[in-house]
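I'm stuck. Please check this protein.
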Amino acid sequence: MNLWPIAELRDGSPLGLGSVERMGYFLKSLTGKMKRRKFLQKLVYGTTGCMLASTRVTSAQKKATEQQGRLPYKIGIRQASLRNPEDSSKGMIANFDTFKVARDIPGITGVELQVTSGHPNMRDLSVACRYKEEAFRWGLDIPSTAGIWDHPAWGPDAGSDLLNSIRATEILGARIMLVAFFGKNAPDMTDKQSYGSVVSILKEAAPRAQEAGIVLGLENSLSPKGNKDLVDRIEHPAVKVYYDPDNMYQYGHGEEAVPGIELLGPERIVAFHAKNKGRILQETWRIDWAAAFQALTEIRYDGWLVFETQHKNHQECKEMTQHNIAFIKEHFCPPPG
């Protein structure tokens, strides 16, 4: 049984047959990118360290930093957080200049793209191909996708929505697909009738995601313990948590937001959102971001940090993001490479 029908472009031609030249371009670009990546990793690992996150970092950790170097920071921003430099009233969703705009923000190395939002969107797979070309053109990664639902989460069309979004995410070369479900769409983890169908749908989707080299990152209104219970019930390496401490506060789990990082650990956290409701991260509001990044250091988190921030215009986005990146580098230290 073929679980992966040949994807078609808008003109009806099968992807990989009707677009041989484009796919050949991707293969060449990816090969070259891999060679450069190996060189850059050797250069970075061999010559750089990073500032210790706090006085709680032990001398043994410091010695490891000095001797081995550290993994590079992987810092991205959501497409939905970018503002159009030519018209600040507009964002960058469904805009192929997304990577051009993101490239103008120092320290940003990737963009989290929206799959179904706006028009054109990635239900037309040629749109995903175009985004892939633009990412390569501007030298940025696509770590993750979001906005994957066409229909309400966990309804009768949930399986097809997940599969279609996995296809688009695979074409992009992204390795994480954010699966969001909040409020009434989040299951009650004390009630099997509530969480049973969610577990079943994700168990069915997980092998297909794994075949595509993708991890489904769950972002929701559950507590850290609820997320742990859900992921553990699915029990598949392609299903983990896309952790957002601010969401923990938003949905009544504020005291668990930072401790939840240790509870879930690096084995369950696949990606991490950072935001502070229009403020820079160092401003005091409802999450102690210094403590959150210290917790990430302590669990040896080595994944992406993605800004989900609000901005009035592109210039403010640039300035605030630079402040936020400096704050992250002061309080978070990736593990030794």
